Amino acid sequence: MEVFHPLLIISARVLADAEAAPRVDEAYRALAKLTRAGIRLLLTESEPDQWFPTRSSDDNVLVAQSRLQQRLEQEGGELDGFYYVPRSMLTQDRNRLGALTDILGRYGTEAGDAHLISSSRAFLKAAQRLGISTYRIKKGAHDTERLISTLKSLPRQRR
């Protein structure tokens, strides 16, 4: 019997924005519940312009990644990974599409079994081209209600 594990891809910015919202705990509890139900969770972020050495100063990107992961684990959830999407002024659309294709391949997931939550219209458009279910969350903490309702409505079984 085939084991089904859908993949949820969330732009880390969406979670970072939600941290300022009053109901952020509920968002993390909903995420944790999904991961306990077998949904694999991957956060994405644009690759930083420059990686700073951590010997002399904290790397802000890695600190933010660690904070999001710890917050999820506090609610009993599990993060499968963090994926940094390469940046380039001339090839950004190709980079988004390539990153999503790479993610699907790494997780052995078909596009129809994956979901993307993001505030980036370009990233959502790339996902739609591949057949990934998409959910747009507006930038800022004010759209946390939509994030929570989206997380609670995600299918946990193959369609």
Could you explain how this protein is built, in words?
This protein is of the alpha/beta class and 159 residues long. The protein has one domain (7-60, 79-153): HAD superfamily/HAD-like (Rossmann fold). The chain contains six helices and five strands, in the order E-H-H-E-H-E-H-E-H-E-H. It has helices at 12-18, 24-36, 60-74, 92-107, 121-130, 144-153; strands spanning 7-11, 40-46, 81-85, 114-118, 133-136. Strands 3-2-1-4-5 form a five-stranded parallel sheet. Helix 3 (60-74) links the parallel strand 2 and strand 3. Helix 2 (24-36) runs parallel beside helix 6 and helix 4 packs across helix 5 (121-130). The longest helix is centred in the middle third of the chain and has 16 residues, at 92-107. The protein is globular and about 35 Å long. The model has no long low-confidence stretch (mean pLDDT 85).
